[in-house]
Amino acid sequence: MKQNMDNRNFAADAAVDMIAITDDDPAPDQLPVLPWGLQQLLGYFKQVCRNPPIYIHENGQKTKRNTTLNDTGTMKYLKGYIGALLNAIRNGSNAKGYFSWSFLDVLELLDGWESGYGLYYVDLDDPDLKRYPKLSAHWYSGFLKGDNISSDEAIGIQKNKTPVSCVRSIQ
Length: 171
Known about the structure:
By secondary structure, the chain is an alpha+beta fold. Helix content is about 30%, strand content about 15%. The protein has 5 helices and 8 strands; from the N terminus they run αβαββαββββααβ. The protein has helices at about 10-15, 35-50, 70-90, 135-145, 150-155, and strands at about 15-20, 55-60, 65, 95-100, 115, 120, 130-135, 165. A two-stranded antiparallel ribbon has the order 1-8. A two-stranded parallel ribbon has the order 2-4. Strand 6 (about 120) and strand 7 (about 130-135) form a beta hairpin. The relative contact order is 0.21.
């Protein structure tokens, strides 16, 4: 039986009810920073799904290309989500890995070259494609070396929030 691809629905295929929560005030071309959602989701997997090992891939903040190397929004994003991950692990989550998206600014599937998620800016006008570290690259490098581990107050994790989505079991 051939599927009708004209009537595909992402939310229906994912079997979740998605709701938008916008209590953060991001720049117009950035994603909201809501790390408590990750912390609660990891808690949910721990309690309801028997705490499977979890690897977080491609987690990062969207920035407009060619704006600045001073990407404080990305630093705030990384601090918040890594802080939430550390809190979840301290609470017994079986999270095993975290991978930032991405090391370099790359061609994005939906935005092309208009946005970047990389820790390094790639100069597309340079024939050698010279790379420049953004402020977030320096912060992340220091964090990995143990230099920038902050308290919950500095990370700014908000507590006692409702979950980002209500997961339905697939019968």
